[in-house]
Amino acid sequence: MDSEQARHESQIHTHHIHIDGRDTMTDLQYPVGKLERKTALTDVERRGLLQEIAAAPANMRKAVAGLSTGQLDTSYRPGGWTVRQVAHHVADSHMNAYIRMKLALTESQPAIKAYNEKLWAELYDGRAVPVEVSLTLLESLHDRWVALLRSLSPGDFARTLVHPEQGVITVDFLLNLYAWHGRHHVAHITSLRDRMGWKVEG
Ligand code: NI
Question: If you measure from the C-alpha of residue 192 to the centroid of ligand 1, how many angstroms do you get, rounded to a whole number?
Fold first, then answer.
């Protein structure tokens, strides 16, 4: 994600569509609501979020199941990424997330690097590679990520890192952020399917 929220918020001002007083563009962009920032989590919260991260690859696989090439190359909202770009973006983002967590777990408050997610999504692999490539990538990545997360102590979750835009954040913050992030993007695809009446398999 990476300042995705900030970037989306600035976009909202240029792309608002109001129908019957409802902010339709915000509904399309935030089908599961905006991120609720959390710095420190309880044990119960961590367990729930860990389950969400564990379930994200299967949820993404289900969200894109049975879609045609034309459907995969449809934008989830006007001016937004295609379904294919969304799937590849989640892989881009979660690879960065995993590395950020490992940096935080092995260095003293490391400074991490942002990346330009919009330009990453426009590179050839993000626009054109079969979604299956990122589905299997996500499955492997999340297997390792969840194994790592399950091994952490409360002190590990409190470790800090410095994000260029968010400032000092914790591993807990990242856990909460990326659990939301997976749900957020899966819902872009499932809500598009709903609106388009595209059949859901199984
Ligand atoms: Ni994102």
Answer: 16
Q: How far is the CA of 106 from the centre of ligand 1 (A)?
A: 25
Residue 12 lies in a domain: no
Please report, in angstroms and rounded to a whole number, the separation of the first and last CA atoms in the chain.
30
The Å distance, Cα 154 to ligand 1 centre, comes to 27
- In a domain? residue 14: no
| Secondary structure of residue 51 in the 3-state scheme | helix
- Which residue segment(s) compose the domain that 69 sits in? 45-196
Residue 38 covered by a domain: no
CA 8 to ligand 1 centroid distance, Å:
10
Cα(92) to centroid(ligand 1), Å:
9
Question: Domain tally for the chain?
Answer: 1
Least confident of 20-24, 70-74, 159-163, 175-179: 20-24
Nearest-angstrom CA–CA distance, 52 and 104: 21
Tens digits of residue pLDDT in 47-58: 999 999 999 999
Calculate the CA 171 to chain-centre distance: 16
Residues 163/36, Cβ–Cβ less than 8 Å: no
- At 124, which CATH number? 1.20.120.450
Q: Which residues are within 5 Å of ligand 1 (an ion), measured at CB?
A: 1, 4
Q: What is the pTM of this model?
A: 0.88
